[in-house]
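Troubleshooting entry. Yesterday's outputs looked truncated, so today I'm pasting the complete records for two proteins to confirm everything comes through intact. If either block looks cut off, that's the bug. Protein one:
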Amino acid sequence: MPQSPSPTSSPRISALLRTTVLAGFSLAVLPSITFAQETNNDETVTKPLEVTASAKSAQGLPGGVSIGEEELDRKNPQTMKDVFSSDASVEVGGPTAIVQKVYVQGIENTKLNVQVDGARQVDSSFHHIGTAIIDPAMLKSVNVESGVAPADAGPHALGGSMSYETRDARDVLEAGDTFGGWGKLQYNSNTKGFAEWLTVAGQSAGFEALAYLKNSNQGNYKDGDGDEAIGTADGSESGLGKFAFTGNDGGRFEAFASHLEDEGVRPSRPNYAVLANGAAPQWLSYRDTSVGVSYVDEMPSGQFDPEFSLAYSRTVLNIPALQGGANFYHVKSDIQSINGKAANNFEVDNGVITAGIDFYRDEATGYHNRSPRNGSYSETSTDIGAFSQARLSLTDQWRVSFGGRADQQWFEGLTGEDFSEFGLSGNANTEYDLTEQLMVYGGAGTTFGGLPLGESAIYEFSGNWNYDGFAPSRSYNAKVGSRLALDDWTLDGNLFYNLIDESHDLSSATRNSTVDLDTRGVNLSAMYSYGPGFARLTYSHTNVKTDGGVPLSTEASYQGVIMGDMFNFDAGHSFDSYGLRVGGNAEFALSDDSPEERGNEKLDSYFVANLYAEWVPGVLNDAVTLRVDALNILDRDYIDRATTGYDSTRISEPFHEPGRTFLISAKVDF
């Protein structure tokens, strides 16, 4: 049985990053550096932020979730759970990055089209690990189209679409600067560990380059009762490199490469804290690599406004001794995907019509050494789609977005069986301004879901891999709502309904194992802005059913999870004259008795609150930022609503969230 290395990251990388971060303090005083703020005597003037939008920009459909660069900076996200902490309609289950899964209106994100910088994410490695293992530190924007997705979002967007975009060199540098970046050092009081970040960027004569590296070296955390959560130590490393050239005519070519590694000792089933059978924790290695190129025209003229992209991603999961003890077996999953898109944005008198083609080829290979079928086997899926999406302003008050796509898919099973499927998808959305303050909106769509890859970590678990009755899934989605903007207040509310017919269970060797998954409910939000601050409250009631009944949390993988009633609160205030920013967020989950229908205990209510304070002390040309985050400040012991395993006799204890935690960080811009 292989020896398990220490669950910490490379000490050389850690030491190098810490040294570089600390050295940034001295770099910060170089006279050639220009900073974001200009000082005029005793008055600090912040340069205005310019926000522009073009007809071809991703016009978010009402009822979705859009998170920008400013909000991400304010949140200081450590994992994807922090990214979505302000919106009750999107919940993230799991306390650590390796097991976190995103649920949009109760639907797991494997039922959505998910892309990072245009690279397709295929998350069917193992249902006991996460489907949102992304380093959030360099994210620039996150856009979620809930339920009804536009045709140009990509294929098989059964529950909607999610697009993540990372930062470029020009997001790090001020206009006119040729070189700069930032370094950051952070200490976690709960895990007794450090994390280090370093970003370096340069730009000149239209050329840009960026390099980013993060290293984390954390121990196991303790929950609100002071109990240590075994297998939660974080020794992850991640990096991002980008190169771009923008010509005088606005044509922009960009290339990127990213890599993330998470290795350590995890529970026998990583998303369950303790199994009833006493299986020992084991070593697990997860690696995700993506590369891609793209071209867009940022100053289009006439009818020629093209965009092209090509990306490749590979995810490798390696578990040398899954069961532990004498009866261990080696499991490995290797998923590779290549996807591309070619489109043009045609300007018309009242908007823009986007038309083009896209494709992907996914291959998932699984290996393990257990009979009856040990060895290596693969499934492959290829899809070519053609799409068109119109975004038009019919009058000054009335806007519409509608489109459709056609997909041809070819699928080869691990038994050698071949499948060919064709499907159409369509969507329509409308917005109408009843008054200058009140807008109503609605939308509906149906999506061809195709034949998904099975879970590659279990390809060899059974000698009876069965494709009888294997057929595509299809979704039907609808929403209706209104938005009121009145002085400093913005109020929004919508009703939603999502149904996925024949939603596949990817963890079953019987490939026709499906359920009818439907989620329905209401989303409400209220935001008050008052110059230097804001306060925002969101509420979501989500009812999730599988085949008309309440789902078990252990059946949530690749499907959905009970959400019930969730409140999320977010607030912040800036004291500009002192260089100080403070704020916090909170989540309140009401108790839910739905599990009692399956003979399980109801879900308990919980309330968790987080605070932060960020200070620019004014030394070293305002290059230094000091920050303290107080997480779970009330030291609550609780299980997050989207964390699975609370209702299974096979699990002695599900994961409880980290107890009171202080993050103390120093960031230096240079």
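Protein two, checking that the full record survives here as well:
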Amino acid sequence: MGTNLSGGPAEAAPDVTSADDLGPAAVSRYERSSRSLKHGDTFAVFDHNGDAFSSPSNPEGIFHRDTRHLSEFVLTLNGARSLLLSSTLRDDNATLDCDLTNPALVLDPGGEVLKHDLIHVRRTRFLWQEACYERLVLRNFDEVPRRLQVELSFAADFADLFEVRGTPRRRRGTHHSALVGNARVVLAYDGLDGQTRSTTLRFDPEPQRLTGREASFVVELAPHQAQSIFIEIVCNSLEDNPHPPAFTFFLALRDARRALRYSASRAAAVVTSNAVFNEAVRRSVTDLYMLLTETPEGPYPYAGIPWFSTVFGRDALITALETLWLDPEIAKGVLRHLAANQATDFDPAADAEPGKILHEMRYGEMAELGEVPFRRYYGSIDSTPLFIMLAGAYLDRTGDLDTVRNLWPNVVAALDWIDRFGDRDGDGFVEYGSRTAKGLVNQCWKDSHDSIFHAGGNLASGPIATAEVQAYVFGAWQAAARLSRKLGHVEDALRLERRAEELRIRFDTAFFDDELGTYSLALDGEKNPCRVRSSNAGHALFTGIALPERAGRVVSTLMAQSSFCGWGVRTIAASEARYNPMSYHNGSVWPHDNALIAAGFVRYGFQAEAASIFEGLFAASTYTDLRRLPELFCGFARQRARGPTFYPVSCVPQAWAAAAPLYLLQSMIGLGFDAGRMHVTLNEPTLPPFLDEVVLKRLRVGSGMVDIALRRSRSQVVVDVLERRGGVKVLTTH
């Protein structure tokens, strides 16, 4: 995925360079209608029935630390699959609930038939502490007693996540024979990396028959009687739990819900006049907190399910920027965790250089063996300047000078990386080029192998300097200047401010193309501009590197029919040689990309255009399952009474896509903070057409808190302070 794309070996295995290269075997998630759960380093993907079927490139199953610990899990009644009634995630993502019923069943050799829709089956499932818990409740709505054969088939292939994505392997480790007890099965695998990975399944009550592939129960139900079966699936634990699964299910469910409530309680609450938008916001927030993983340094948003449920630098940094107003603790956790994993030495195999910020971290067998380079991989050109930008924004938002002081050596190391290694040829621009044949060919957020190209369609050769990376470096120097000033380094602050302004002039000279009416996509290794209209130019508005006199033309180009498809701004315009609305980066629409572009529009005073982007993405969300914005969708033009065309292997949920509506809302209402003075500011607040009122509750600044309401009044937005605690002031400018 753009930033998320852990891609795979760019030269050795181009089929995993990015998600768009997974190949024809990839299974569309919209075709499979999957349901996802996550906790910590464990995630699970099931179909709507709650089943998992292993097949090539199908991500269903239970994964822990990049290994699939359960590849098959299928429920049958008397040998037949149940019929789906409904399937949904709770609003807080705590549980997956699947309601099923029986098809018409022949019960015995004599031909007795159980009519359909007489047995109700409810599956309630959740993840907690490296385990999956399920309660299976069967209820008889027939007028006579019924005897049913309930079977659960299961398997664990222990496939590495990159195998599931389509990367072939020449050798694999050794599978153990299943260890079968009365109500317990252990499946295990010895990897080539010397690690043993195991999956333990426990059942309550004890099955009538249990093998290494199947658990079978005989359930006798009187009319209207219900019986429960509990299943516990634990990753990498061989200890025999003394408590039965019926006990551990309720204990774990209580703890899981408490943890979700506790973490989400930090967030400000959003309530608006639009009930559908309220649903979308609630899902965004609950998805974000599901994707958060507690690290030793604090909460960290994993990028997305299924392919990116791990630490990504770029994704987390942008997600933290998008949610900084909502919950600054996310940004704090991201900064501290990335600082703890900042490169300190050279490692060409990992594209690591001193001071560089992480791109991706993996724990699977293939990463441990070096079959893919992502064990701790630094092939991201923009994570380092984004790290500095986030540090500055975090201090602006919170006034937390102690945390920033502790991070300052990491900021200095990141600034040094920009100078020593980021600018490879000393021309004042930051370029990328992989140090290893297995690394990502493109290391900007559009990291597909074909995403950076010239007007004729020929691919750019490196080292490559993309437009948005220069914008991030500009933002990084400005942020570092603010940090320096707060820490008393006045001379350093002045020097960094000068460098930012010098970069702005150089950038305009080298990148702005008068004929295109926007900034070129990139400069190639020969400093020839890639004269392509792309969404990257919007990021120049986002950080403010664009000269004010250029802003209007850039906005017009991005909002022209060839770029703005009605749902959002395409990654590249329809007029370009490599335009393909079904591609990953060459014509698709990415919510996070559009959120940053809209923030740039507002920065330069183009609120109406930002509102159009907001409306388009909101309209797209009304057609999506659970109101979730996916990682991306196809860039086909919007048509009346039709929803967007979905991208087949898009990750859902995806952290920076989930955060996009929240950031769009912040941008539109001009929400800012002065933590030192305990001020909340609203600069030229505007409401998009689909919102007449927005209420923000528990908005924290410094040691205080405030609830505010924004209401449309003809052409103006009126701001009311509903409640304040701790001396917070709300300042509005029009």
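Both blocks look complete. Sanity check on protein two: Residues 1-31 have pLDDT under 50 and may be disordered.
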